[in-house]
Each structure stands twice: as structure tokens, then as C-alpha cells.
Amino acid sequence: MSEPYDKGDTFCPSYHHAVEMIGKRWSGVILRELLLGASRYSQLRSAIPSLTDKMLAARLQELEAEGMVTRTVVDSVPVRVEYALTDKGRDLEATITVLSEWADRWYPDGPDRPV
Amino acid sequence: MSEPYDKGDTFCPSYHHAVEMIGKRWSGVILRELLLGASRYSQLRSAIPSLTDKMLAARLQELEAEGMVTRTVVDSVPVRVEYALTDKGRDLEATITVLSEWADRWYPDGPDRPV
DNA sequence: CCGCATCCAACTGGATACTG
DNA sequence: CAGTATCCAGTTGGATGCGG
User: Fold this and answer.
1) C-beta of residue A91 within 8 angstroms of C-beta of residue B1
2) In the prediction, which pLDDT does A50 show?
3) Which keywords does the record carry (chains A, B) (predicted)?
4) Is the CB of B20 less than 8 angstroms away from the CB of A23?
5) Are B53 and B88 in contact (CB under 8 A)?
6) Which residues pair with residue A69 across a beta bridge?
7) How far is A24 from chain B (nearest CA, A)?
8) pTM (2 decimals)?
9) Cα–Cα distance measured from residue B80 to residue B68, given in angstroms and rounded to the nearest whole number
């Protein structure tokens, strides 16, 4: 990661895909909530106030298609839906932890007041 | 990161800002190239083939405004411009490394062929 | 070499209302 | 509870061309 610059070793598609998937609007926040233990749709909703139904539902579908989460309908009344991280999704924990630490280091008072 | 879910401990603005900044289109890739040693505008251009001038210039301005990179005009003919990571930008190395490893683990053959 | 200006089609996502 | 439907303004970013 710190050797002399090699012109050949460029444009990494896997990393590219990964960083823009977790960085897509709300996705990173949703994944973090799931890592923190949220599992129900309504938990996610109330955990992230400015997130609308439309966005949450859309992102969860995308994350499911990416193999990051599973969706399980619990047949009760009223219906509940449980979302759970897959191994792949849970494996992001290290990344999200390290990035959270970075954020705390450089935005201890929130993003509007950088260090 | 793995304790029982606490409804209060939600919506982290610093992390939210961070993840969507590095996840914005091309930003993560540009930061990675800078970490790998790229410094000139033209290096970044040729390192990332599908990245246009417009996008590269725009992202570099945003990253500069975020305090992630510095921009230095070298007064030669023709003009060169050097981009360098700030401490804040360099401090992202751990995150990008860990995420790259995740990507290699789950997309060893590229994002179109997940494990 | 390093951009910026313009045009423009496509996508995004907020508001609001409604369903099983 | 857990979504979907519709509308629509705003943003995005590719293409192309020009300028210091």
C-alpha cells in the first residue's frame, strides 16, 4: 500500500464496487445498524429518522440482491420482517469499525465541525 | 459493535458523512490511487480509464474542500499539478486496506462473479 | 498538461397517499 | 407492520469542445 507507484496496478474493480456499494446513500448507515443489532424493518426506520420508507425498502432490496442481508417474513399478526446480515455482510464489521473510528477522530463534533 | 441493540445509540452523523464521502462516485478509487502513490492529475487520469476530466476535477475539488487532499500547481511548462493526501486523508489508509481485503475475499474474480 | 463550459438525457430521492 | 404507487424537482454525469 506504500511502495513506489506502479502504473500497472490500477483500477481495482472489486474494491471499486465495494466502496460504492457501502457508500451509496443510506446503505452504510443501514449496514451499521444491522451490525449494531437491529433486525426489524421498524427498528431500522426509527433508528434513522430522516430515512424514508421508499429508500429503506429500496436499499434493503439492493443489499439482499448483493448477498449482504437476508429477508425473512415472520408470519404473525401484524406481520414482521426480519433482516439479518449474511456472512458476507457481517464480514464488513472490521471496515465499518475502522471507518467509524476515523470519523470520530476527524469529526468529533459532527461533520460540520471538522478538526 | 456487537452488544445487544441499543435503540438510543443510533444515527451517527460523523460515520454517515464519512461513508458517503468515500463512497461517492469515484472518490474511493481516487483516494486509493493517491494512497498507492499517484500524485499528478495525469497519473490519476490514466490510472482510472473510465474516469472523465469533469469527474476527476470535480472530485478533487470536493476532496480538497473536505480537507482530504492538497493541490499544488508546479510552475513548469507545461503546467503540472500535484495532489497530495493530508494527514486526514492518509489516515484513511487502514479503512481502505481493510475494505480492499474484504473485496478480494468476496469478489476474487471481480464484482460480476461473487463468491 | 490541466482543466472549465455547455448541453442534455437519465437517474435519484423526497413528499404524499394508499394497501395487505 | 411493512411496504408499494405516483408525481416530480433536483442532481448527476457522459459527451464534446475550448482555453490558459
Assistant:
1) no
2) 92
3) DNA-binding, Transcription, Transcription regulation
4) yes
5) no
6) A85
7) 6
8) 0.91
9) 20
* pLDDT score, position A4: 46
* Cell reading at B85: 493526501
Q: Where do the structural domains in chain A lie, given as residue ranges?
A: 13-106
Q: Answer yes or no: is A60 CB < 7 A from strand D.
A: yes
Query: Which tens digits make up the pLDDT trace of A6-46?
Result: 444 457 999 999 999 999 999 999 999 999 999 999 999 99
Fold of A13-106: Arc Repressor Mutant, subunit A (1.10.10)
CA B49 – CA A105 distance, rounded (Å):
33
Q: Where do we find the cell 461473487?
A: B114
Amino acid at B10: T
pLDDT in tens, B28-83: 999 999 999 999 999 999 999 999 999 999 999 999 999 999 999 999 989 999 99
- Cβ distance B38 to B47 under 8 Å? yes
Query: How many Cβ atoms sit within 10 Å of the Cβ of residue A54?
Result: 8
Q: Is A85 helix (H, G, I), strand (E, B) or coil?
A: strand
C-alpha cell read off for B25: 462516485
Whether residue A77 lies within 8 A of chain B, CB to CB, comes out as no
* Nearest partner of A96 among A41, A16, A19, judged by Cα: A19
